[in-house]
Amino acid sequence: MPSLVSAVATPASGDADTGSQVSGGERRSEARERLLRTASRLFYDEGIRAVGVERILAEAPATRATFYRHFPSKEDLVLAYLRGVDAQTVAAVHAAVAGSSSPADAVRLIGAAVADDLVRPEFRGCAFLKAAAEYADPRDPVRQLVLAHRDWYRTALTGLFSEVFADSPRRGRPEDAAQHFVMMRDGVMSGAHLDGVDQAREAFRRGVEGLLTLLH
């Protein structure tokens, strides 16, 4: 389905492997991957600023020399962590598109992936929202990476909603629908543990269905 593929096509300035503009080309090694896995778990569970390099080295385990050979600074490690989350999200969006028979079904599958995340035992909210709360400076590379990821996600949804609405006489604005989807996603990922996961998932699903059926 060329039209669906074009809806989430790789931006001209993006990374060819992920379809996003935030991925890097770091050198791979077993030690690097072990450090990144450990840091990713700790950053997500406990917060980025709360976890120091010494803690990561102790749990990886790894030497300081090994760490700095792969990550010149903690910021480089943080960026690699978020690029990994970005790559997983982009892959999930592409899988939803590839596994759908229509743009509307693709949107539903993307929404289902969000809803399924909420019931994972290790779920602690959106990694990007959590990172943004810790890095408020808009000039900070971490904050810029978060914004680049969100821009890609919103653009992909806008493309899908453009096809959902097509030439309907009640056609909505695809960019508004995409922004609405992102806002609902932010809300359910931030508040599900407070409001009850089952109720939050159902409310999110109804919201996604409403975007698909009420605006065209």
Description:
With about 220 residues, the chain is an all-alpha fold. It has two domains: about 25-70, Orthogonal Bundle (Arc Repressor Mutant, subunit A), CATH 1.10.10.60; about 75-215, Tetracycline Repressor, domain 2 (Orthogonal Bundle), CATH 1.10.357.10. It contains ten helices and no strands. The longest helix is centred in the middle third of the chain and has 25 residues, at about 75-100. The two termini are about 20 Å apart.
Assign the CATH superfamily of the largest domain.
Tetracycline Repressor, domain 2
CATH architecture of the largest domain: Orthogonal Bundle
Shape, please? elongated
Query: Which regions have little confidence, pLDDT < 50, spanning 5+ residues?
Result: 1-7, 9-18
Mean pLDDT: 89
State Rg: 18 Å
How many strands?
Answer: 0
CATH topology of the largest domain: Tetracycline Repressor, domain 2
User: How many independent structural domains?
Assistant: 2
Structure annotation, total helices: 10
According to CATH, what is the class of the largest domain? Mainly Alpha
Strand content: under 5%
Portion of residues within helices: 55-70%
Biggest beta sheet attributes: none
Listing every helix as H and every strand as E from the N terminus to the C terminus, the arrangement reads HHHHHHHHHH
Helix and strand content put the structural class at mainly alpha
The first-to-last residue Cα distance is: 22 Å
